[in-house]
Amino acid sequence: MASKEKITIVGSGLAGPLLAISLKKRGLDVELYERRPDMRKVHISAGRSINLALSTRGIYALREIGVWPQIEKIIIPMRGRMMHALNGALTFQPYGKDETEVINSVSRADLNIALMDAAEAQGITIHFNQRCTHFDLRERAVYFRDEETDERKTVNSELVIGADGAVSAVRRDFLKLQRFNFSQQYLDYGYKELTIPPNSDGKHAMETHALHIWPRGSFMLIALPNIDGTFGCILFLPFEGKNSFQLLQNNSDIVKFFEENFPDAMALMPRLAENFFANPVGAMVTVKCSPWSHGSRALLLGDAAHAIVPFFGQGLNCSFEDCTVLLGLLDRYGPNWPVVFREFGAARKVNTDAIADMAIENFVEMRDKVGDSRFLFKKKVELALEAKFPGLFVPKYAMVTFHRVPYSVAESRGRIQDRILSELCDPIAKIEDLDWQRADELVHRNLTPLEDA
Amino acid sequence: MASKEKITIVGSGLAGPLLAISLKKRGLDVELYERRPDMRKVHISAGRSINLALSTRGIYALREIGVWPQIEKIIIPMRGRMMHALNGALTFQPYGKDETEVINSVSRADLNIALMDAAEAQGITIHFNQRCTHFDLRERAVYFRDEETDERKTVNSELVIGADGAVSAVRRDFLKLQRFNFSQQYLDYGYKELTIPPNSDGKHAMETHALHIWPRGSFMLIALPNIDGTFGCILFLPFEGKNSFQLLQNNSDIVKFFEENFPDAMALMPRLAENFFANPVGAMVTVKCSPWSHGSRALLLGDAAHAIVPFFGQGLNCSFEDCTVLLGLLDRYGPNWPVVFREFGAARKVNTDAIADMAIENFVEMRDKVGDSRFLFKKKVELALEAKFPGLFVPKYAMVTFHRVPYSVAESRGRIQDRILSELCDPIAKIEDLDWQRADELVHRNLTPLEDA
Predict the structure, then answer these.
(1) Distance, CA of B90 to chain centre
(2) Is ipTM over 0.95?
(3) Which tens digit of pLDDT belongs to each residue from B215-272?
(4) What's the CATH number of domain A6-75+107-183+285-362, 2.60.40.1120, 3.50.50.60, 3.40.640.10, 3.30.1330.30?
(5) Which of B166, B174, B376, B432 could form a disulfide with B303 if both were Cys (CB 3.0 to 4.6 A apart)?
(6) Residue B286: closest C-alpha in chain A
(7) A183 touches chain B (CB under 8 A)
(8) Which is nearest to A135 in space by CA: A345, A303, A337, A298?
(9) Was domain B6-74+107-183+284-362 assigned CATH 3.50.50.60?
């Protein structure tokens, strides 16, 4: 792969540097442009939720570029969900079938820094403070404005890759193309970041190895552990109506709301109201579009191509898997970009559509169903079925999170398994009463062995 | 209604002048801005399909503003579909239960001219050649560039209404709002306008009072009569692949394609290839968005709010019905715009979504099913059921086209009726064998009397 054509990647968030490293290792000439300043020198908010959940698909991509050993040091494994009832009672639901199946809390900023370090170690230049103002597809020219100096710059290259997130500037030019399909759909819910500080001994104030959830039906609070002993919390509430951000206008509104709904969490948040008003309310959007590419000139990737809501913890993992799939096609076809990009869209879009839809469905599961004993019973039965029929009955959550089967396969098998599970669980109250003969029939009649990637 | 606040309507196509007339009659101050020149002075293509099908909803709105008598003179009633088989055999399927249920072919340009004449007769100014370059929601300022003189103009008004079609310029500014939901989805099919000239006696070369269809499974040709003796034809083909526009590159491709697929139509098209290359291939888009309004400052209406594909003949009728619904709310609440607009979106969007989806479904019906004898048999049974159970079983096509029931009601009742129809038709081959007792049971158990608007 000796082509020395220049590739410009807009966005040095997460997929950007990961892809840049992979392309550089294949002998391609690539540079990164990033709107924000260098966060290793300037303290900035990474712009969105502080913690991400890294799982199998993301880890696979990090191993491939050799960065996993560095990342492994900055993650905290979470073995399951810890549900907090209103009365403070705790219920733990494991994510996986054993201790190897965990998701990993990682700071977005730390992960970003590790990837940028690795990119620079490969000799890749990252241009900071470069806001993409406009992209001209026909001229293959990207226009930047320096956020500090206001200086304008035009970058010409053979190929432009937009890895610049859910509100991608590169994507705006795609909207001018003939027949570009595009959709952006916002949830009626917003989110607010809060913090639980460490105990006086510097340790975590709650169980470290869990993702904490306060499910309250139409809304919820969650908390993920950080390596500095804090928990990054996120409150998800409707923008308007009953129990909404609209109704939380002053300190006493907030204190009252938390006293009523999250008394145990509130006891761990000495600066609750201050935190609350320091951070804006974020919006959550699902973006779908097609095509993701234009000839050999431009490609959209990651959130720029398919932003999803955060409730399956797959945004990061999905973007990294984009890179895995794209690189597989590059290795197969060489830098024959029109073919690589066409195959990439054809292979990948059905899967990014599937995880987008599953992420929205999972919101209902997290904020409502996890507080329900029947739901938790079914989750136990699911794990029992997986133990009994390994490689055949694999829970949807596990297929998405601990396997690399295509998301669309996880979605369709998940639907079949839901029906099996309902038929087996509906008549019983205890796992001891499970009709194993019927389970055997249903599983073997409806499911083929799972082919992992 | 004495408020003299100024209203700017962008777009003097069809919904624009109709709404302007209605607002002016209510004492409001309104002006129209139109990108194109005055088509009464300059000959221009109206930009899209030449013929439209005017039906009950559209006629109702035209009657309300008193313009129907003028329009009635320039329409041609079409009583049903005339299907052209490959061997030239003709099959007629009536649209309605009797001669009162017809759709009306009308020239887009003639309709537009009649509405502009009526608007000016009301004292409304139409500013031509004014391209909206940009709309500033916060400043309520619309920026225009004169297409002839290049002169720039800024128009400030209390309220801006975007009636500027599927690629609305006013809507672009809505995309900058927080949490604006937006979707544009193109069909993989394009269309091309062709013409069948009159016979030497000036009369129509085929049955005048029908919409002609050449259904060919994955593609089709249609023809609508004009009052000048011509037929406006539209060829619908995939952009790419088998039987696609991509494969029709030169005269011999076109002649061969028409000889193979539309020999009887081709015999009536002496200038086929010339026509073919004179017109571009059009694209068809479905646009959905929300909200359609911003406070008391701006509203999207018609195609700008909800562009649909043309296969139910409802684009025009739906846009006119927007005006009917909006004016009903204005008469109820007065010019309390935030309330009027909120109620308008709440009442209307479910219905425009429904007709958008039904229009896509109808494409399959037109290009494929109408050539199928079982489908035509079911259509006969539908009419028999309507005759037997008037006001109870009303075919979906009739509910959409000849009634003013909300589109969403037509869609949901249509689904119920499809199930009834399948149960009754599947076991029989002749209408004489219909089980009327079962029909009576099914209809009365599943349907309530239709409440028309």
Answers:
(1) 26
(2) no
(3) 999 999 999 999 999 999 999 999 999 999 999 999 999 999 999 999 999 999 999 9
(4) 3.50.50.60
(5) B166
(6) A181
(7) yes
(8) A298
(9) yes
